[in-house]
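Minutes, project check-in
Item: structure for the 342-residue chain
Input as provided by the requester:
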Amino acid sequence: MGALFLQLINMSIAAGWLVLAVLILRLLPLRIPKSYRCILWVFVAVRLICPISAESMFSLLPSARTLPQRILTGPSFYIHTGIAVLDNPINEYLGDRYFEGVSVPAGNGRYIMTFFAFLWLAGILAVMLYSLAGLRRLRRLLQFSVPLASNTSTPPSDAVRICDYISEPFIFGVFRPRIYIPSNLDPSWIPYVLAHERMHIKRHDHWQKLLGFLLLAAYWFHPLMWAAYIFFCRDMELACDEAVIKDRNMQDRKNYAYALLACSAASRSSLAVPLAFGEIGVKERIRSVLAFQRPSPFMAAAAWVICIAAALCFLTNPRQEGEPNLSGVYESPGTVLVTDDV
């Protein structure tokens, strides 16, 4: 159990560098399609899922394994963040004060990692129970929904339902997703709402958000993963908006923005709700809709270059470094240290 958690810690640290890179790229004034941001978040998911990555001279990761396996096996260990200003003092401190059976109890590293592993499992359980409780409450409300009446521009279908007990439209369900619309929604906004929610289904966003939530539950201990989930949801909504309005005129875009504003509701927990029309970042989405311009071929090409560069720099590991001895000096791979055990 401790070995598994140690592996997850190292994977989360490596993915954290990619999250920081994506957040910085989001701040740059680049008019690239929002769908390319979603590709970058897919890279984060790959980094969190795959325990093995190829080595590359292009990698910008300071280190692929910050915490070594020697934490579990003892009797001493080191860290390797790849940042000397951190590594040197910490490793010097560990070399002077950490030796199992002498300065700390024997098996100390394994006991500590096992304790944190069970704490990690408890955190996963808490996140999942909280989400399931929210979904259960929502399901009880949705049992009173009925199919959308045929007096709208959309033919009646069980895939689109109205409900008196919800405040904004959303998708609910994984294998058979349905669109739920509040009964008090202005009928003039329904075509725009349905266009948005159907685009989510077409893009399989309900599956992507489920995967994102499961990864968040697994890596709940890493603060950057919470930021990644929030901004991933925002970018998914922005990309869906762009896909809906890209072929529409300015008047339709204004109506779409009005529908967004009308459907924006009180903030709810993103852990327990499905994809909602007015759920996240309404102001940013309205600005994006009204300012939308078709990307030029140059910007589309630039977006691909950014994605390829991000993959090369953050989905690959740096070339294998030597391991530091207790004095903090790095040695080339294959070097054998002969020491006298006391």
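Outcome recorded: The chain has two domains: 1-106+296-334, 147-294.
No further action items on this chain.
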